[in-house]
Structures are given as C-alpha cells and as structure tokens.
Write a structure and sequence with these properties.
- By secondary structure, this protein is mainly α.
- The chain has one domain.
- It has five helices and no strands.
- The longest helix has 21 residues.
- The radius of gyration is 15 Å and the shape is elongated.
- It starts with a helix and ends in a 10-residue tail after the last helix.
- This is FUSC family protein.
Amino acid sequence: ADALASTHLGRELLRLREGWRRMPADARPRRLLAVALRHMRRRAGDPRLAARHARRAAQSLSRLPTADCLPSADIGRSRAMLLDIAALLDAHADYFSRRPGSPPHAQ
C-alpha cells in the first residue's frame, strides 16, 4: 500500500508541476503554487507539515478572485491535486518520513 501511495504521490506532484509550468509567468496561481511547492520541498522530512502547506495552498487558490485567475477548471484541478497530495502525505506519513535505506518495520 505504501509503495502504491508513493507512486500516486509522485504522479500527483508531477502533474501539479506540469500544470504550473503551463501557467503564464505572471499569473497569481502560478506564484502561489511555486511558494507551496518550495515550502513542501523544505518540509520533505516531515510529511504532516508538507501536507499542511498543500492544504493551505489549496485553500488560497479557492480564495483567488476570478478576475486574476486562469480558467476555473485549471484552478479546480490544481486544488484537487494539492488536496490529494495532502491526504496521501497524512495517510502515509510514517512511510514518507523514513530515511532512505532504512528498512520498513516488517523486515
């Protein structure tokens, strides 16, 4: 289950970054996602804090005025990806916080 969650998390992050790259450079959602990704990267050792940053970014995206935004479908997809990332990080925090090379408890 953890390996599947890891694959799913990687795909969601990749999709989020690809969407971020397609946004116009001066778009507010792009700046907001850049900050969120940076904070999540800094908190990679603590998945619950990284999840908190993902949830905050999703909440901030929902508050953006529609005049400043990209099409609402793009914002909705970004929010869904951020919330999915947060849920995966929270649900599998023990797995994601392990140091590389440390064996799982079952071994």
